[in-house]
Every structure is written in C-alpha cells, then in structure tokens.
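## tool: complex_structure
## caller: assistant
## args:
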Amino acid sequence: MDTEEKSNQLEHETALNNQTLYWQANLKLLAKLLVVWFAVSFGCGIILVDWLDQFTIAGFKLGFWFAQQGAVYVFVALIFVYARQMKILDRQFDVGDDDSNQEPQS
Amino acid sequence: MSTQVLTYLFVGASFALYIGIAIWSRAGSTKDFYVAGGGVHPVVNGMATAADWMSAASFISMAGIISFIGRDGSVYLLGWTGGYVLLALLLAPYLRKFGRFTVPDFIGERYYSQAARIVAVVCLIFVSFTYVAGQMRGVGIVFSRFLEVEVNTGVIIGMAVVFMYAVLGGMKGITYTQVAQYCVLIFAYMVPAIFISIMITGNPIPQLGFGAEVTDGSGLSVLQKLDGVLLDLGFSAYTAGSKSTIDVFAITAALMFGTAGLPHVLVRFFTVPKVSDARLSAGYALVFIAILYTTAPAVASFARLNLVDTVHNTAYDEAPEWFGNWENTGLIAWQDKNDDGVMQYGAGAALLPAKPIFDVDGTRGSHGERLLNNKSTESANEVYIDRDIMVLANPEIAGLPGWVIALVAAGGVAAALSTAAGLLLVISSAISHDLLKQTLLPRITEKQELLYARLAAAVAVCIAGLFGIYPPAFVAQVVAFAFGLAAASLFPALLLGIFSKRANKEGAISGMLAGLVFTFAYIAYFKFVAPELNSAEYWLWGISPEGIGAIGMLLNFVIAMTISHLTAKPPATVQALVDNIRIPGGAKAAENH
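## result:
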C-alpha cells in the first residue's frame, strides 16, 4: 500500500468517524426533545391531567390547559429549537448543506 | 347586501383567485408536477402545508366535536399537532435528503424491492381515498347551506375547481393556491372567533378569552360558567373527561403517528431546496396550524355557551332565524315532547334513532317546526343538533354581520379544496410515477409520464366526486381511521428505513402488512361485523377502534425488527444510502430517474 492510498483511506475513515459522531449527537438531541414532547402531551395532557387540574393558571385548570393549549405551544418551540441546534451541529461537523460550505458535486 | 349575495361574492372571488393562480403556475415538467420544481421557500411551504393539512374536518368539524365532548376532544388537538414534532425531527429532513418524488419511492429504494413499493402504494391509496371522500362532502355541506344549491351541485362545482388547478398545475399549482387558501381560511376562522371572544369576555384574543371572566357580572370564568351550565342540564362537566386514560392515550398516539405518516403531508417536504429548509419549514407549518388549533378549543367553548343560552327554554316561535335555516338543511331538529312550544335542551339523545327522519311530505307542526318520524326518547332533551354545524353556525348564533358569515363559507370551501387537491396529487403521482414509470411501463418518456400523471389526477378527481355525491355508508365512518392505518403501515417503515440500517425488505414488507391487516381487521370487526359489541368491555385492553392504530404500529415495529434480524442484512449499497440520507450535505434537488 503506497502512501497516497494510505492517506486516502485515512481520510475516508476520518470522514466516516465524523459522520458517526454527528449522528450520535443528533440522536442525543432527538432523545432530549422527544422526552419533552412526551412529557407535555402524553404526560401533562393525558396521564397527569386530573392531578394537574387542582392547580389553576390564567382561568384554566392546569391539566386542561396543557391538553388544549399548552402542549401545542411547546410543540412549536421544540421544532424551532431542533432546527437551530441542528444547524449548529451541521456547521460543527461540517456536514451542512448551506451554500457557503457546500462541497462541489459531481 | 344580503348575506346570500355576499356569500356568492366571497366564494366566487376566491374561486377566481385559485383558478388565476393555477393558470399562472402551470407545470411544465414532471419535477414541477410532483414537487413544484423543488424550489419552494420554507415559509411558503409551511403555509401550503398548513392548508394542505387543515381539512374540512379541522375547519368545520373539529371545534364542533370538542364543543360537545369537552376535554375528551383534546385527543384531536394533541394528536394533530404533536405529529408535526415527529415529522420535523424524525422524517422530513431525511426524506428531503433522499430527494425523490414520492413516499413509495423512498420505501421502494430503501427496501430495494418493487414489492415493498407496491405495498406502500396500496397503503397510500387506501389512506388517501378514505380521507378525500370526506373533503368533497364538506364542500357539499357548505354549498347546500350557504348557497342554497343541492349538495350534489356543490360537489360538482368543487370538483371542477380542483380539476382546474390540480390537473393543470400539479404540485406547483397546488402549492401557490394552497397559500391563498390558507390566508382565506385562517382569516375566516379568526374573525368570528375574535368577535365572539370580545362579546363574551371582552378579550380580543380567543386563546386568552378562553380562560377569562365572562362579562355578565357573575365573576365566573368561561370554563367555570360552562361547567355549571352543563351540569345543570344533566351533562357532565366540560373540563372533565369521560373516556378512559388508556383509550385517550391510544387515540392520541394513533393520530400523532398517523399524521407523521400521511403521504400528502410528507410529500410537501420534498419541495423545499435544502435539508435545513425542511426542518424549518415543518416549524413554520406548525405555527400556521397552531393559530387555528389553539383557537378551535376557545371557539368550541364559546359556541357551546352561546348555544345553550340561545336555545334552551326559548319558545320555538321566538327562535332566531339561523335555527330555522339549519332545520331546513336537516342538521337541526326539534320534537316538542311536552307540547309547550318551548325548546328544552339537555343531556341524552333527543330522538330514536338519534338522527332525525323528517316527514317526507314536509308537513309542519303547530309551531311551524318540521315534523319527525322518530320516536321520542325518555330524555327531556327535545333538540337535535348536528356537531358539524357549530363552526358554520357560530357567527349566526352570535348575531355577527352578514359579511362574517359569508367569509366563513368561503373559508370552509378553501379548507376542503386545499386538502382534497393535496390528496389527489399524491394519489396521481403514486399511480403515474410508482406504478407506471417505476414498475409497469419503465420505458415511457417524461412527457408521457406527465400526461399519465394528469390523467390519473383527473380520474382521481372524478372518483372523489362520486364519493362525495354517493357517500357509501362506510366512508364517513372510516375517515377518522385513515390515521390509524397510516400509523400502523407507513410510519414504522419510514422510521426504520432511516434509523435502522438492519431493517431489510423482508422485515419492512411483513411489518407493513401485519400492521395494516391487524388495524383494518380490528376496525372492520367492531364497526361493520359486530357493531353491537363495540364497547369498552369487548375492546382489546380497553382501546377503541379509533386508537387501535397505536397497537398496530407497535406490532409493525416488533415484526419488522424480528424478521429483519432473522433474515439477511440489506446490501451494502442500501447501507450506504442510509448513511447518505443521515447527513444533510450535498442534498440535490429532486431529479427524474
């Protein structure tokens, strides 16, 4: 195996490794956001709804509010947080599709 | 100008707008037709997705259902918005990176199998057609009430308009008309909501008015007052649930995962230029959707309060005009059980059978009401009110001016047409692209494929129209189940295709079939074979047919993973494909292949 081939292979492995790390970071972020997603909808809106109803917020029973208003607001926030965090990860691992760092395509 | 004339004007003007856009944005290539050329701005796509998503069911029926079932109605609010989180986080960006035209395209390539592609096409057509039939019916209802034409004429006019822009413009035409339709429908939804919120609570923001104090000096909040009024009439409290927790859990899950697996929504994310745009676009879509979905429960509570106020203990002779108008369409009925000429409203079904059967000769009773052939029930309730009228009748019930009522009619039509068009497009592209180009007739040119796509869209419009005119008894019942079927068949195959490199064709195909067959059989058994057994004691773990898609989905996952591990790994090229879609870099625009 000559040196050029070796360095090519090394580059290839680094790229693979970089991709794996990016994917793991993505999965970690997904797990965190999905925990919140589950907690506000199935958690506060369904499983804990009766217990939360003993508290009041702005004229609503709290459980009822989560089920018919609150969870939806959190959902919207979750998607924008995800889009933002992923953009940061894309840049960090240099795998994004922004025109600025796009590699030439064959 | 009378409300009638205003309604013609508003609906007519909105139709002219949609057709104008269709002519301006004609599709020139299959790429235009399937994915609008792939260059749609994420905000525009978000708005189009919102219109695509919010159907006649969201616009007309949802607030009405919540109005009558109170807290249990949360399943729709949570299910139909929470699904977007799954869509944005788990599917949309990767499918965009994959960069082809249709959902079966992805399944066929990822599972390297034409059989998998065909199974996906079957699931897609099944889900989309059950859904589209309901839309055409929605158009018919709006026309029959507001334009006083026959339901059937209404359906045909609706078909003609959809035909114009779906067949001519394909995805490109649909995208830009959907943007216009979103503007019409959200304006039409918000204006009466804001008016009514001000009238009842003095707060112009319905989301806040929903929790505010009623301005009648009682010092009670809207929900407290509503709970009290309903308890007095023998109903259960508005803010209390009557469904079991496990059933609510399962229904919400089926709706959420079903939403994420709906082909006509997924395909919208194929139209944006980049992967990062797909993520952002799902966020914008949910913002646009949330505006309506957080207003709907407020509208539901205001409408219920107004309804009880106006109807209960009112003499029929003094009933407001809207009551008679809706009675004429057959969606309201009154049976004077105690012969006092006054309408008593309360808990329990007023009639037996529950839907009114009007006297065929159109005979009127002593107070001018339409006579019924139903038997009366034990219940003291004398009034039948169809849930579907709540949003449409709400402005009239609240006594709002004619132009608001006309606006709501135009909004209802916009909601139904935008969804119908999106559904028809995925049906036609599944046929022309996946069935013909990719499977049966691989030699056709792009031009021929485009022609087939238009033909398929035209045929699909006609079938949808027929469903609207002759609604088979089962259609209305199965529309809600489209979600369960999508959750149990398509969602797991898509998710595993991205997140598991081990999932192979044997696993995916058996998983999809198992999920679809199990869910379909459970629904068919309780809805058609043995409807008398359709109650909690006979259900599997207390889960109703509406929620069984959640179990079907788990079954799909378990079977797909087990069989995948027992059979050969997917080939190296497919594993490389999975690696490739996991990173956004180098996303190419959708190409013909």
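## assistant note: DSSP finds three helices and two strands in chain A. Chain A touches chain B through 47 residues (CB under 8 Å). Handing back to user.
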